[in-house]
Predict the structure.
Amino acid sequence: MPATVVVGTQWGDEGKGKLTDLLARDMDMVVRYQGGHNAGHRIVVDGEAFALQLVPSGVLYSHITPVIGNGVVVDPAVLLSELDTLSGKGIDVSRVVVSGNAHLIMPYHQELDRLTERFLGKNALGTTKRGIGPAYADKSSRVGLRVQDLLDAKIFREKLDVVLKEKNLILNKIYNRPSLSAKDISATYLDEYTPRLAPMIKDTVAIVHDALDRGERILLEGAQATFLDLDHGTYPFVTSSNPVAGGACTGSGLGPRDLTGIVGIAKAYVTRVGAGPFPTELDGELGQLLVDRGHEYGTNTGRRRRVGWFDAVMARQAARLNSLSEIALTKLDVLDTLDEIKVCVAYEAGGVLYDYPPYHQSILHDVTPVYESLPGWGCDLTSLTSYEQLPDKAKSYIAFLEEAIGVSISVVGVGPGREQFVRPSWRGASSSEPERVSTHSRGRWAKVARCS
């Protein structure tokens, strides 16, 4: 049976939580495969908002087994707090399992994250200062503590003593900060956190493979998105793991042949949090309008997101990096009041047109977007319940994006609520489905940008 991946195609905040929640109703297991509590998923159910950070979105369904995979970095305090909040709202959290191979976020990770960002000054990366990057750095340096270490107090203390000697030297000598106490950290993690976490700690690789063997359906969700990927994103303004679909394998223990569907999710415009290049960014009144209408503030941090027009150049790159089988388009309703909507179909730099992002950062920082303009539809979409009810201009916008990206759009979000989405009824009907454009046809969009 298939395992399906949900992956963001932009810089995050596309609505992965809502899409995962939508798809989870037909699944048996939802696996979070990377990231930490630096990403928040907001789901609205019957008017009540659920802000999820570490717990997989499928927890809201009683039939789902929510799995926190080995590729995630876990702050126990945040996880337990989130579970308590969900439990207080009547959600059964006893089904949640955590990989013993997931790495722990420790107090020194958070302290070093804050200090490093402050030290960088104007060159700061714009991290959430929650210890994500330092935890992944320790994982790569092979000095990290894993969730399974909580189950062996002797091992936990030995590993902590070794790593804390180095961390305290850095805190003392470089940042002039006091040392952290191994005794205090051990008491918190072993005496306070472990008794509650121990029943959840499992061999999640065995769990997901056993589920596939039983014919169950698995959904894999990541945090952040394609262009925050450590390898393929706008480095160094990226996260510290691999949100792309390939990361779903390493972060869950599934193999590539287990993945049979890759659903990309994209906003009808683009947002970004923190520093880094943003070719289609909008300032002024129009940018603020999209921020206000889209409620573009971080679920966890409250930070204002940067906004811009839809970037088909990015979307094409996301399609080929992730082998997208389809796209879910969210927040189409945010564009309801606009008379004109622009789509970036190419970049121009130094007299050269790029239909995919240039690999060299010096070029990417200086590109000028090439736009196509489409008419707005000027009406409220939030009450619509079927694709057929969409105004023709909204359908034309969707069709234009499909052609520009080369991937079919199978779901369209028309509001923040759990049920506020529509699906094109002709999906899968070969006689009426429009011709698709290959995502690998370089050069085509230099021409399209000049066609009416």
